[in-house]
Amino acid sequence: MDDISTYLSGFEFWSHMSDEEQTDIRKNAIGRIYPAGSVIFHSASECLGFVYVIEGSLRTYMMSDEGKEVTLFRLNKGECCVLSASCVIKEISFDSYMAADEDTKLMIINASTVSRLSRQNIYFRCFTYELATRRFSSAMKTMDNLLFLKLEGRLASFLLSEYERTGDTEIRMTHEQVAQYINSAREVVARTLKRFVQDGLTEIKRGVIIIKDPEGLKKLL
After folding, report:
1. What's the chain's Rg over C-alpha atoms?
2. Spatial strand order in the sheet of 202-205
3. What is the tens place of the pLDDT at every residue in 123-168?
4. For the chain, which end, N or C, has fewer CB atoms within 10 Å of the first or last residue's CB respectively?
5. Ordered strands of the 69-76 beta sheet
6. How many C-beta neighbours within 10 Å does residue 162 have?
């Protein structure tokens, strides 16, 4: 794969590592490519380690015994996660899955290396715990929206977050994809988007949702 240091050097812990520690990471980091739709991780059956998204995107979700999914958060290009390292960070105890939303290329540092460096290097340990905290915060925000926001508020929040993330008013997703991300049904999302169009908040084209009135969407939150 590409030079590992290209990606690692962007993390704040990298400059605080010894030459031996940096070499350790380089030797134990690998690149993997996952096709869209593939489940790459299940916390009950494996411990993946530290995950960095080089290209593509991932979705982390929980699943009920009946098969209903609840999306917790997404990881896009340039983002990383350690919730897949539950065997390293013992406080991570909930059952979760991680799947590729699209063809995705990852850099993965295996769990044993993450564990070893966390013991050796305080900067790396602080980074992993702060990262885990941010991901838990994202998951809690999702649960808060699911419990306390009406569907139109959840949809508006999602559209605005995509707009803020990409800087583009055109969100290239199907109704099915949006429904999956906001934990609803495609038909319900379609009906709500139709109301948004009638209210002048959005415009709909095939496979594209265009935000016309961001301020109007904020009023739904």
Report:
1. 19
2. 170-171, 208-211, 202-205
3. 999 999 899 888 888 888 888 988 898 999 999 999 999 999 999 9
4. C
5. 39-42, 97-100, 57-63, 69-76
6. 21
